Amino acid sequence: MSSTAADVVRLLTVRGETLAVAESLTGGLVSSELTAVPGASRAFRGAVTAYATPLKHELLGVDAALLEERGAVDPQVALEMAAGVRKALGADWGIATTGVAGPEPQDGQPVGTVFIAVDGPRTVDSGSAAGGKVRALRLNGDRAEIRMESVRSVLALLLRELTGEQSGNERAQDTEQNGGF
Asked: What is the distance between the alpha carbons of residues 69 and 89, in angstroms, rounded to a whole number?
C-alpha cells in the first residue's frame, strides 16, 4: 500500500466522495493499491479493467471513431475512460490509465508511452471535450516498472486534484519529471 493511495482514500472518505477506476495497461494494479488501504470501501466504488480495445467503447463509452482513428493509446481516450467509469459506476471521481508497457509498441506508440486521466467535480483542463485532466508520460524501464510508475502517477494526479495543488507550469513539470514527451 502506498502513502499516496492512503492519502487519496482518507481525503475521499473525509469529503464523503467516491472513486471509480478505469484501467488498461495497469490491469488492476491501481485498484489493488487502493483496496490495500484499510477502510477503502468507504470511498472506492469499483473498477473496470478494459484491457481489450473494444471494451473501452462497450463498457466505458469511449468514442468508437476515436478508437478507430487514434487507437487506445491516446490522451482523449484516457479522458473518456475516466469520465466513462465515473458515470458507469456512479462515482464522484474517475481515474484512468492507458498506454504501452511493452515489450512491443502499440497503436504506433513506443513502449513507455502512457496517458493518465482524472475526471471529477472540480476538474477542468482547457481544450478537452470530456473535461477532466490528462497527463502524458514517457516512462523508462521494463514492463513491471512502467506499470508501477503508471499506478503511482495516476494516484498522484488524483491527489493533486483533491488537494488543489497546482504549480505555475504543471504540464511542463509533469513532462520533465517523467522523462519528457
From this structure: 27
Alpha carbon separation from 86 to 32, 101, 118, 126, 180 (Å, rounded): 18, 24, 10, 20, 29
Sequence-distant (≥ 6) Cβ neighbours of residue 55 within 8 angstroms: 48
DSSP class of residue 168 equals: T
Closest CA to 107 of 164, 151, 153, 67: 67
Instruction: Dump pLDDT digits (tens) for 55-113.
Output: 999 999 999 999 999 999 999 999 999 999 999 999 999 999 999 999 999 989 999 99
Its pTM surpasses 0.70 = yes
8, 14, 32, 34, 126 from 29: Cα distances, Å: 15, 24, 5, 9, 29
On whether the CB atoms of residues 85 and 96 are closer than 8 A, the answer is yes
3-177 has which CATH code? 3.90.950.20
3-state secondary structure of 23: strand
C-alpha cell at 19: 472513486
The total of other beta-carbon atoms located within 10 Å of residue 141's CB is 15
Helix 3-15 and helix 143-163: axis angle, to 10°?
30
